[in-house]
Structures are given as C-alpha cells and as structure tokens.
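Posting for a labmate who doesn't have an account.
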Amino acid sequence: MLSFLGGDMKYLSFIPFLLLISFSSSASAGWKCSSAYAASYSSECSAASVQDTPESFVSAFVNAVKSANTNPNKTGYTAGSCTTNGASSASCAYSWTFYGSPFNDSVGIVKEAAVCPETVETRGPDAAAIKSGDKYYVAWSVGSVNADVCHNSCSYLASSASGSTCYLSPGSTVTGFCNYFVGLNTASPSCGAESGYKSPSVGDPLTPGTDPGDGGDGGTNPGGGNDGGDGDGGNGGDGDSGFDGELSFDNPGSLEGDSILNSEVNAVHYDAFVRGMEADLNESGFGKALSEFNQKMAAGGSLAVCPTATVQLLGTMITFDAHCALFDSVSSILAAVFLAAWSILALRIFLSA
C-alpha cells in the first residue's frame, strides 16, 4: 500500500470510484441513453440519468436539452412517444420549432440491468406475542415464508429466509413482528413488479426496559427455528461474530402454557380442527365403508333370532335355549370386540392399498 501511495498521485482519484463500486448495495434497473447517444449528448444524457420508464426518460432528456439550448430561435421542445425494440432498447421521439418550422428528432435508450445485493432485509407480518418470564416471544418462524420477494427488480428466494430481529408492535404486548433476510436468486436474479417486500422497522423491545434498537435479544420463537437473532443483521452483517471460544446460554424462564391452552382463539381453532378431521374421515372411502359396516351390523342384530331346539325325552319336552340368555348378556361386549377387530382389519387393508 505504501508503494502504491508513493506512485503517481493521479491514481488516487480512482479510489472513491472503486469504493463506490465495492460497497454499492443496490441499483434499480432503469432506462438511460445508449452508448452512441451518450457520446453525442453527454451533458443531456447525464442530466436525464436513469429513469424507471422510457416515457419518463424522454421527458427528462427533453428538459435537459431545453435547459442546454442557447439559441433563442429554437423553441417548443416537446417529448414524444417511445417505441420499444425488444425488452432492453427503445427509441423516443421529441420535437421543437426553429424559426417557426417544426423539427423532429429521437434519442436511443437502453435498459440498464439491476445490480442486486446478495441479501435484503424485509419485515415479516404481525404475529401473536407470548410472554414467558420477563420476556416476550413472537409466534412466527422463517419457515412460514413461502413466497419469493421482488424488490428493486431483484428476485430473492423464500427458501433462503433467515432471521434477523424481532420486536413487539409499538404500544402492544399481544402482537409483534420480526425482520428477516432473504438471499438473491442467483439462477434468475431479475423480476418485474415489486412484491413481498416491506421495509424493515423497529418496534418495542421484547424485554421491557431494554433499548428497542437491539430487538430485545432477537425475539426467539418458542416454537424453535432460526428467526431470532442478536440484532447484528443476521447473514447481512459485517462478518465479525465476536466469538471468543466459549458458548453461553441464558434461560428465558418457563413458558406459560396455560395462556395458550386457555386462549379462546386457540379453543376455536382446536374445535374447527377436530370438526374438519371428522368431516374428512366421514367423506373418505374408509369412513363411508365403516359407516356402512356399522349400519349392517345394527340391522343384522335387530333381525337375528337365536336358534333353539326342542326334544322329547322320556315323555317330557325339553327346550335348549339357555345359550340365548347367555348371548343376550354378552352381546354388547361381543359387538364392540368384533367391531374393533373388523375396523382394525379394514384400516390395515386401506393403508396397505
């Protein structure tokens, strides 16, 4: 480095430019002058810069041409329409008058590709906050992220989501949210319309009395997962973990399970789940077969007659019907046993299909 600084000082002028390239995290895709027009209209193209649409670019370009005009006989500069040539180039018309006569011209533009950062941080949805000890937890996990993110024309994969920091919603102790990171889709980094992105924000700390800027130690989800962090930016940090060779763990305290079990919302969800499972079973082939079997068993039991026998012995008529009384006393037990046996057999056949 000393030998470089001791060389020709003109190279130092490139340092800010190189640093800008190295540390620039994002640049939106947009329209700008093509190389040929940038050489001919350098000041006008520079003033027009990069615009979101061809129409907005030609408007900015015409304003720059109008500002640079020093001929009082050239007036009435007006932006015209743009004709695209494929997905990455276009030609935009504009006009003016010279001594009252109309003149037309055009400028060629190209679409600049987006420079996408490797990761981007976004805000997750509001979720329930659960208190355990003196700390709150946000009942949310990065595993619930199932839609890719499109931000500044860059595509990010939902499957790459990793936790950043979590907070309580401002002024609330029942809801919270987590910021999280998503990684660039390197296979197809470009996308169209903005979707799935929400600017990361800061709320109230998960541990009352702490600085909200640290995210309350990350707001670890009691259900597990890696959506909690220490507020250092997750995998988008500066790479300095500060690890000193020892691991430590602070016990967050016991989880108040009664608050979950006694929740009216959870009770409603549980009831809906049980009813849904019952309806699904009744509509399935196994459920219908089991119902039909029960009906036949009930019908067969109501129509069945216990067989008896009557014989004449030494002039006396003897009837054998003691077994009927015995079967009547144990019929309910036998019905339950055989119903269970047939149900297990039917289930084995159904699952082996």
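Reply:
Got it, the structure tokens are right above this. The longest strand covers residues 154-168.
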